[in-house]
Amino acid sequence: MFGGGFRAQKLRVSLKLAINRFKHLEKKKTENAIKARKEIADYLSQGKDERARIRVEHIIREDYLVEAMEILEMYCDLLLARFGLIETMKTCDEGLLESVCTLIWVTPRLSTDIAELKQISEQLALKYGRPFAEQARANKTNSVNERIVERMSVQAPPRSLVENYLVEIGKSHNVPYEPDPSAFLDDGVPMFDEKPHFGDGGSSGGKGGNGGGGGGMPGFVHSSAPPPSLPYPLTGGDSAYPPPVTSPPYQPQPMMPQPSVSAIVIVVIAVGWP
What we know:
Strand content: under 5%
Largest sheet: none
Number of strands: 0
Helix content: 40-55%
């Protein structure tokens, strides 16, 4: 795998091909997820809740995978944009460290779907050395994107997330569904008794919670803030609060004396008419 030397052009071509492959798979999996949601809604309408839960776990994993692919596609774009740093620097630039390590780490997990990852990982290992590649595969330096690690985990999704998916699928297809309250208690999530608040789960790179991922499923926000205070004390029927608004009594302003017509005539005669 590590025979020969680093070939920049081979890495460049592999990155471009990987980007196209990522886009194609993301579109395909998204279309399949839409069809699967319709199938799950049919299970709910037929009362086959357990079968619907199993199918939802598959949908969640696919949503996680699509989100991971979007991040990896972005990393390939970043390496192409900064390809000059890869060619000129002997060591991995700090701004590329997470991208390079994440692509090497994910190769054994996605190379079946994205064959170009093998070529990318091989060329990066030839560029930065075998010890660097081995550390990246084991994530010994914790440089791999944490959200990718979470999304590629083999652990089953939390029960509360499964129930949230079922609720939203039921709403979108006009199928009534009552979630299992024990699922929320087991995961430490309170059973919602009000309209859920849909945040950005997600999307977001970095650390993600149980409700993140490509599905963008909600968390439930309960406000515990006290009600706003009144601008005056509440005294139980005391009409003194709020105090009555009174206007000051009307006081007419004194009028300035106006000259009479006779006075004007006398002034004209005294001054003289022009």
